[in-house]
């Protein structure tokens, strides 16, 4: 593989965004609250547009959560507010009891928050294994530096574990550019799993997948550890309602409805707006 010191800065930065282990200092607040993520009246405005408008929701520790909504509803902007890519213009965000509203993105990553992006951010010229290895190295010491990594054998072992967990061991040596689209999305999830995340934000991981690839994705999401929370943005209701326990539907930047998958599926207003907009 290419030496990590040879990676261009933009590529290195992309690897780093995958995160770091949770900070030890946050363990006390973990005990104090069963909520992994709490949004209180979060708004993100772009000029006059309130892309996210006064959104409140909470994700319990270990809970699998879906955010639905038609194009432009504000789902990705909500993720950007949570990660700090585009911080809220008002409102508060708590992560395991700690107010992270003002924290820069890399500090949020250190606390165990991860995300995947709607468009692919992989190292296409490298193998599956090397991509995962870089993600592991990026989070290994929590210092966001490739220069002072932990022992290489520990990273190799962690990479092997990620290959298994992301169900990619059989294509570990493949170059990413040669992978099917579904396998690339799977790899992105694998990279987000590096460094013991506590909550992952998945932005439309099923977009563009074949039915077989969707089944594989569902199996992967279902195989994630019970203690790990995730929030899944998904247009495919079948997937969203099958793999999550709680669902928020957004519309025009606001929360239209929050409920169980059953409640959401049977909600007349949701059907009219969300499914009506889809078909
Ligand atoms: N950086 C930005 N600057 C200006 N406007 C933005 C920015 N990001 C998002 N928006 C606007 O905010 C609104 C919500 O966009 P967002 O990407 O959050 O929607 P979405 O629900 O993720 O849609 P999709 O399902 O198409 O991904 C849109 O009107 C979009 O044009
Ligand atoms: Mg989006």
Give a written overview of the molecule:
This protein is 37% helix and 22% strand. With 279 residues, it is of the alpha/beta class. It has a single domain, classed as P-loop containing nucleotide triphosphate hydrolases (Rossmann fold, 3-Layer(aba) Sandwich). The strands form two sheets. Strands 6-7-8-3-9-10 form a six-stranded mixed β-sheet, sandwiched between helices. A four-stranded antiparallel β-sheet has the order 2-1-4-5, covered by helices on one side. The longest helix is centred in the middle third of the chain and has 14 residues, at 152-165. Mean pLDDT is 85; it is low at 1-31. Residues 46, 49, 51, 69, 71-77, 118 line the site of adenosine-5'-triphosphate.
């Amino acid at each position: 593989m290419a030496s990590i010191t040879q990676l261009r800065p933009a590529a290195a930065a992309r690897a780093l965004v995958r995160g770091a282990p949770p900070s030890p200092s946050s363990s006390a607040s973990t005990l104090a609250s069963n909520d992994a993520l709490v949004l209180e009246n979060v708004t993100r405005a772009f000029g006059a547009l309130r892309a996210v408008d006064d959104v409140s929701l909470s994700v319990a520790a270990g809970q699998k959560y879906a955010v639905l909504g038609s194009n432009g509803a504000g789902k990705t902007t909500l993720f950007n507010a949570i990660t700090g890519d585009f911080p809220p213009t008002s409102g508060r965000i708590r992560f395991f009891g700690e107010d992270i509203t003002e924290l820069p993105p890399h500090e949020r990553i250190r606390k165990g928050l991860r995300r995947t992006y709607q468009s692919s951010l992989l190292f296409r010229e490298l193998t599956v294994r090397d991509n995962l290895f870089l993600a592991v190295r990026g989070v290994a010491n929590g210092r966001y530096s490739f220069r002072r990594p932990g022992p290489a054998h520990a990273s190799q072992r962690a990479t092997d574990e990620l290959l298994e967990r992301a169900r990619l061991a059989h294509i570990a040596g493949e170059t990413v550019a040669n992978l099917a689209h579904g396998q690339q999305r799977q790899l992105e999830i694998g990279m987000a799993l590096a460094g013991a995340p506590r909550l992952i934000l998945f932005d439309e991981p099923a977009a563009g997948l074949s039915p077989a690839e969707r089944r594989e994705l569902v199996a992967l999401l279902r195989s994630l550890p019970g203690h790990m929370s995730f929030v899944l943005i998904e247009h495919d209701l079948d997937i969203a309602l099958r793999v999550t326990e709680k669902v928020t539907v957004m519309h025009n930047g606001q929360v239209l409805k929050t409920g169980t998958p059953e409640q959401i599926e049977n909600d007349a207003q949701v059907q009219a707006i969300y499914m009506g907009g889809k078909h």
